[in-house]
TrEMBL record:
Domain of life the protein comes from: Eukaryota
Descriptive protein name: Clotting factor B
Record domain Peptidase S1: where: 1-148
Gene Ontology terms: biological process: proteolysis
Tagged with keyword Disulfide bond: yes
GO molecular function, a single term: serine-type endopeptidase activity
Record's keyword terms, sorted: Disulfide bond
Keyword Disulfide bond among record annotations: yes
Similarity annotation: Belongs to the peptidase S1 family. CLIP subfamily.
Record's signal peptide: none
Organism this protein belongs to: Trichonephila inaurata madagascariensis
Length: 148
């Protein structure tokens, strides 16, 4: 993606890095949190927020994510939730992306003050349901395509 002109950087506007191929191995589920932002619904079936929302959730191992979604998603994902996805959420629920947040960023802070976008909001079971982490398209799988 290219834009015409320069972007003015402020304390509210700054770039996010794209993930490298090797980053996936450095993001250890359970040891790294990620932040999701969006203007989507604040409750399942609710209305879109007029204020940008932000929530921080832990990265969840794919095996745990697959165990959570086995019954509800196996028809859509017969091979399970594969490594083209990344999952994030609290076991007890309560924090998640929701309808209207799809396409939004899942980011994490690296050393220093740089941020990297790990994923793109994809789907979940309801919103912030206990036992069902949010599922995000893993951006590192598509970085080369984005850079073309």
């Amino acid at each position: 993606m290219k834009i015409d002109g320069l972007v003015k950087l402020t304390n509210k506007t700054y770039p996010v890095c794209l993930p490298s191929d090797g980053l996936r191995d450095k993001i250890i589920p359970g040891e790294k949190d990620a932040t999701v932002t969006g203007w989507g619904d604040t409750t399942f079936g609710g209305v879109n927020s007029k204020v940008l929302q932000e929530v921080t959730v832990p990265i969840v191992p794919l095996k745990d994510c697959n165990a959570s979604y086995y019954e509800v998603a196996r028809g859509n994902f017969p091979k399970g939730i594969t490594n083209v996805f990344i999952c994030a959420g609290l076991p007890e629920g309560g924090k998640d992306a929701c309808q209207g947040d799809s396409g939004g960023p899942l980011t994490t802070k690296l050393k220093g003050n740089s941020w990297v976008q790990l994923g793109v909001v994809s789907f979940g079971y309801g919103c912030a349901q206990p036992g069902y982490p949010g599922v995000y398209t893993r951006l590192s799988q598509y970085t080369k395509v984005v850079l073309r």
